[in-house]
Every structure is written in structure tokens, then in C-alpha cells.
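We include the pair:
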Amino acid sequence: MILDHINNYKKYQPLHPNFKLGFDFIKNFNPSNYKEGKNEILGDEVFALVANLQEFEANTKLEIHNKYIDIQFIVSGADKMGWKNRLDCNFPENEFDAEKDYQFYLDKPTTTFLVKENHFTIFFPNDAHAPLMNTENMLKIVIKIKV
């Protein structure tokens, strides 16, 4: 897992050949130019999920992915997130859904942290993560990058 300010994004681009495409979307993002929901960048290899979250129920479940890395960027507001190493998760809520690339766990996060405006996290397949643990209004982009 990585947590950093968007000004430092270039140092993470070498970690995956498509990280540049994801960070370019974030750097060029203007809410009036992109629709809420799924925005294609490179087919199913790289895409963005844009969400303007208002009055939602807080999440307490950890989630994992096998096929995608998440870059979660906060445009405005703040997102309280949790993290736990995937290997330490013992209480699955459901079977892994290969089509949707997720599984939820009822374990408690090892750590929680607040991701503020202009900050991002990168969650790899070994990172169980629980976004949206708070209910603060936020505009958020999740870049999905195929492993």
C-alpha cells in the first residue's frame, strides 16, 4: 500500500507500465469534463470510476482484488480508510467474485488513516482495504489498473 500527495506521483509511475495513464487521468481531471461512473482510459486494462459521494452509509468491510490495482484519489473532501495484509484476513463475507474482481472480509483493519484532498493511495492485490469508513462528502476517483 502507498499513501502520498499527488505532487509525488511521478516516483510511482515505474511500478507499472500503465500507472502513467492513470495518473494522467487524475492530473487532467475536471468534473465538468467527465461523467460520474466509469470512464474508459484503455479498455479493461485501465479505467476510472468517478464518484461524487454525499450522504452515504459508512463502509466497515475490507475488500480485496486479484486482477486490478486501485489508485484511489481524493479530489475534494476526505476518505477514512482501513488496511490489512490480505494474508492476515480470516473472516470472508463471501466467495471471491471473479467476474467483479472482489471479495469482502469482516476482519478489522490493522490500521486506519485519513486520505485528504489531493492525496492518493495505491492498493495492490495483497492489500485488503476498507475505503469510505467515514461519511464525509467527497469527490473521488478510483483508477483500476489490470495487474
About this structure: DSSP finds one helix and eleven strands in the chain. The mean pLDDT is 96. The domain at 2-146 is CATH 2.60.120.370 (Jelly Rolls). The first strand starts at residue 2 and ends at 5.
